[in-house]
Design goal:
Length: about 210
């Protein structure tokens, strides 16, 4: 049986045999000795990482180690509330940090823990995912929205339906259509300031 460590755009962690193109974690160990998930997160430090880094090898959900999570791509990781890792994705972290500084008109870049504090309030409240509503035409590339229980990626004015294996069913919504946004609002602001999340190769085939 697959481990419960795949994350969808709603931030839920489920069991599926689908493989992701990106790894991450939520600040520590969320599993028990039987490799079963026992918590949704450990701390506010939710990050998105590369699958391989400096030849390091890990046993997934090993005892007393942090819980590895997997995403289809970076856009899904952002929708779930994960920012770029400052170590294994240092350049992407710096780009996100710069976009954050522009979005918030700051005189200096925010430290990771400062961004994490703001992000946590925007990603989850009382155990439930935080969402908000806005017109489709106002959303930059890389955002995720929800329509009738399904998640869609915003890309070049179109919506692409997400699935565990990739994107499908592309269509263009009306610009004034009000949509429920899954990607935390601070991240959407960063996308508007030039940070473009990496999306799965299936999106280019639609």
């Amino acid at each position: 049986m697959p481990l419960q460590n795949r994350v969808d755009p709603f931030g839920d962690i489920v069991r599926t045999s689908a493989r992701g193109s990106m790894m991450g974690n939520r600040g520590g160990r969320m599993h028990n000795e039987d490799r079963e998930l026992i918590a949704n997160y450990k701390t506010r430090r939710w990050i998105a990482c590369v699958l391989e880094f400096r030849g390091r090898h890990r046993v997934v959900m090993a005892p007393n180690r942090y819980t590895e999570l997997f995403f289809l791509d970076e856009a899904v990781a952002f929708a779930a509330g994960h920012r770029p890792c400052a170590e294994c994705r240092h350049e992407r972290f710096k780009a996100f940090q710069s976009a954050w500084q522009r979005a918030y008109r700051q005189s200096r870049p925010s430290f990771a823990n400062e961004m994490d504090l703001e992000l946590h309030a925007a990603r989850i409240h009382k155990g439930k995912k935080v969402t908000y509503e806005t017109p489709a035409g106002s959303l930059p590339n890389g955002c995720f929205v929800e329509i009738e229980g399904k998640a869609y990626l915003v890309l070049d004015g179109f919506l692409l339906e997400w699935s565990w294996s990739g994107y499908r069913n592309k269509f263009r919504p009306r610009g004034d259509r009000i949509l429920t946004v899954l990607t935390p609002e601070p991240m959407v602001r960063c996308f508007g300031e030039g940070y473009v999340p990496v999306v799965h190769e299936s999106a280019a085939r639609l």
